[in-house]
Amino acid sequence: EKGDIVKTFAGVPVHNFEEVTSQIARHAPGDSVEIGVSRGNQQITLTATLGKANWKDERPSPGNATTRFDL
C-alpha cells in the first residue's frame, strides 16, 4: 500500500533503494519472495512473485521520489 516502508526483502534487512534493488538482482523472474514492511504501527509480511524488468526509457535513479514497487 502507499506509505508502506520496506524493511526486509527475502529475509534480508534493507535500508534504502540500492539495497532493495541489490536483493532483487539476486533473484530471477518467477521467484516468490517475502517482503517485510512497516504499515503504520504494524509489521506485515507480504509475498510477491517477481516479474521481468521492462524499462521503457532508463532505470529509475536511486532516491527518485516517483520510484515505487507494485506488489
Beginning-to-end CA distance, first to last residue: 8 Å
Residue share in helices?
10-25%
Strand content: 25-35%
Helix/strand class: mainly beta
Task: Please give the count of helices.
Answer: 1
Oligomerization category of the chains in this entry: single chain
Low-confidence stretches: 64-68
Strand order of the largest sheet: 2-1-3-4
What gross morphology would you assign? globular
* Strand element count: 4
Please summarize the sheet with the most strands: 4 strands, antiparallel
Average pLDDT, all residues: 83
Radius of gyration: 12 Å
The helix-strand sequence is EEHEE
What does this structure look like?
With 71 residues, the chain is mainly beta. Helix content is 13%, strand content 32%. It contains one helix and four strands. It has one helix at residues 17-25; strands spanning 5-9, 12-13, 32-39, 42-49. The protein has a four-stranded antiparallel beta sheet, covered by helices on one side. The longest helix has 9 residues, at 17-25. The chain is globular. Residues 64-68 have low confidence and may be disordered.
What does this entry show, briefly?
This protein is mainly beta. The chain is 13% helix and 32% strand. The protein is built from one helix and four strands, in the order ββαββ.
List the helices and strands and how they pair.
Blueprint: E1 5-9, E2 12-13, H1 17-25, E3 32-39, E4 42-49
